[in-house]
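Chains adopt folds. We examine one example:
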Amino acid sequence: MLARVHARARANAGRIATAAGAAVLTGGLFNDALTGPGIAAALTTAGLGLATNLKILKAPSSARATAIAVYAAPHTGAALLLVGEHLAPAGGISLLVQASIVAVWTEATWYIRPGRLARELADEAVLQEIAEATGEAEEAEEETPAEIAVADPGESAAARWWREEFAGEDGIAPGTVLLEHQRLSEECVAVILGSAQRGTPVPDISQSRLSAHLDVPEELIEFGPVPGRGAGVRLLVIGPRPKPVESEKTAGRDDEVWAEIAATAMPGVELIEANTYEIRKELT
């Protein structure tokens, strides 16, 4: 539910920004004084938008540059159009051509929604990483941004994958939803799960069934509480936890690991207590 509220808020903000951009571009057809402020506003909006879209900025390197380019495309286009309007010769035909280009920019931005498309590209890349870590690469390749959008605009690709793979009525983790995740290493993924029904604890997950489904030893699957949170959320770690180098084996290492997870998974959550378990040498 919270994800849908956030998605709706982002969609409304995008619509407002598109309408404002169209207004500035239209005004620029008749008043060159709007050129400078309009370009500054377009670039500032792009910068602020990217700064608040951590999902895009922290996307896997395979998709980060593309997602950023897609997100910034309408802002860059608006700035170039303002420059073109300033340099274009006066005349009725020239004005008509410019107005047509502004109309195309407005319609394309309104219906394509580059911001949402950029987030879907980031989700798709993350889904691919999770699939590779759990041996589900073939199914992850079948997920496309278009299919994800049809299912639920507010649901991330990874959340949809979890729902379809594990959260069904007869699944391994019924009544759960994937809230966030963080890849700690090539073989280790940390997942934050929530209860599908607000006010109820996250149901217990059968480690043996999860182990059999993912083909991962039970010893490398940890399911427990999230520090500082109630029973409505749980932390699931799949795979061997990364080993710190000798110089990093200090009491504060758990704080650093949790800070890395919390940066994207649970912003604002502080580590209260941590327990360390040694994994047998032959499993590492």
Notes: The chain has eleven helices and four strands.
